[in-house]
UniProtKB/TrEMBL annotation:
Identification of the protein by name: Cation/h(+) antiporter 19
GO CC terms in record: endomembrane system
Listed GO biological process terms: inorganic cation transmembrane transport; potassium ion transport; regulation of pH
Every Cation/H(+) antiporter C-terminal domain range: 5-151
Keyword Ion transport: yes
Xref: PANTHER family: CATION/H + ANTIPORTER, CATION_H(+) ANTIPORTER 19
Record key words, sorted: Ion transport, Potassium, Potassium transport, Transport
InterPro entries in alphabetical order: CHX17_C, CPA2_transporter
Length: 182
């Protein structure tokens, strides 16, 4: 049995990770657990800032979670679980994630609305949760899959684009001289 967990903080990338997890959970050999991290009242998951909530994101999060609960959390099939975890600060988030070390696979969103969970990272492209799970501070043999929802208008970290050179053709042959083509 594959034990899969989706730490859910909210936002489009976490919704995408949850959608992927829900698809994987259709297989009978997969146990899916969704842990929703909820800040204490009046706080945000950034912990140092007051609540400035994006209602559209919040509504979409609720819709996605209710879909998960209605389609994947049935009492007969104990393969899918949903939990809410009230967190007061960054240390509680870190402790909660460390307690999830029994899982085989973590599905996490890349750009989640939370503070960075490690002070320094070699892989900022993994996002705050993925960076923590890949760090030496988190001890597990689990795999981590970081998911980012496709947004055609976003250019968060542009890739280096190669410039095509259509000038003169190279004088170098395609195959070495003296070797007949096969």
């Amino acid at each position: 049995m594959l034990l899969l967990v989706v730490p859910f903080f909210g936002g489009p990338d976490d919704r995408e990770a949850l959608a992927y997890g829900m698809r994987m959970a259709e297989h009978p050999g997969i146990l899916l657990n969704v842990i929703r991290f909820v800040p204490s009242p009046g706080k945000s998951l950034k912990f140092d800032k007051s609540v400035i909530e994006d209602n559209v994101d919040h509504e979409e999060d609720e819709l996605m979670l209710s879909e998960f609960k209605s389609t994947h959390s049935d009492k007969e099939k104990e393969s899918n679980l949903y939990e809410e975890m009230l967190v007061e600060n960054k240390a509680e988030v870190v402790d909660a994630l460390k307690a999830l070390n029994k899982y085989n696979l973590f599905l996490v969103g890349r750009m989640v609305p939370t503070v960075p969970l490690v002070n320094k990272t070699d892989c900022p492209e993994l996002g705050p949760v993925g960076s923590f799970l890949a760090s030496s501070e988190f001890s597990t043999t689990a795999s981590v899959l970081v998911v980012q929802q496709y947004n055609p208008s976003a250019n968060l970290h542009p890739l280096v684009e190669e410039q095509a050179y259509y000038g003169e053709t190279s004088s170098m042959p395609d195959s070495p001289h003296g070797v007949p083509p096969v």
